[in-house]
Design brief:
This protein is of the alpha+beta class and 128 residues long. It has a single domain (4-121), classed as 3-Layer(aba) Sandwich (Glutaredoxin). Helix content is 28%, strand content 20%. A five-stranded mixed sheet has the order 2-1-3-4-5. A hairpin with a 4-residue loop joins strand 3 (58-62) and strand 4. Helix 1 (24-36) packs across helix 2.
């Protein structure tokens, strides 16, 4: 509906956490799914985002905006991820505004990745 998807690593754990199941990432998935229920936003579970040193990890992905990757999340950070998705969906420039973000999304930002539309519309730099 919104073109924004919340992607959560269900196998995630923080460094030093036991490897036993269920992993804390599964709890983060459940928290995000509960927060997004009825909102029109989709939560997708993935098996690894390769951000193990800063787990728990999630990303907010859009077909028309930048992708945001977050780490250092808590098992109950689902509502914060939903708020980030709402902010990105409402953005006019494809960027998630910083000030209204929940603190977890301010402190836990790992990367911001442009979408293909942005990359293809940007002039190429000659590297020779």
């Amino acid at each position: 509906m919104h073109g924004v998807v919340i992607v959560v690593c269900e196998t995630c754990r923080q460094p030093g956490d036991p490897t036993a199941e269920p992993r804390p990432g599964a709890a983060l998935c459940a928290s995000a799914e509960a927060a997004a229920s009825g909102s029109g936003f989709t939560v997708r579970r993935v098996s690894c985002l390769s951000n193990c040193k800063r787990g728990l990890s999630a990303a907010i992905v859009s077909d028309a905006a930048w992708t945001y990757v977050f780490g250092d999340l808590k098992p109950d950070s689902g509502p914060d991820l939903l708020r980030g998705a709402e902010l990105l969906a409402g953005s006019v420039d494809g960027l998630m505004p910083f000030r209204p973000r929940p603190e977890t999304l301010k402190r836990g930002m790992i990367a911001r990745i442009p979408n293909m539309q942005t990359l293809l519309s940007s002039p190429a730099k000659d590297m020779s």
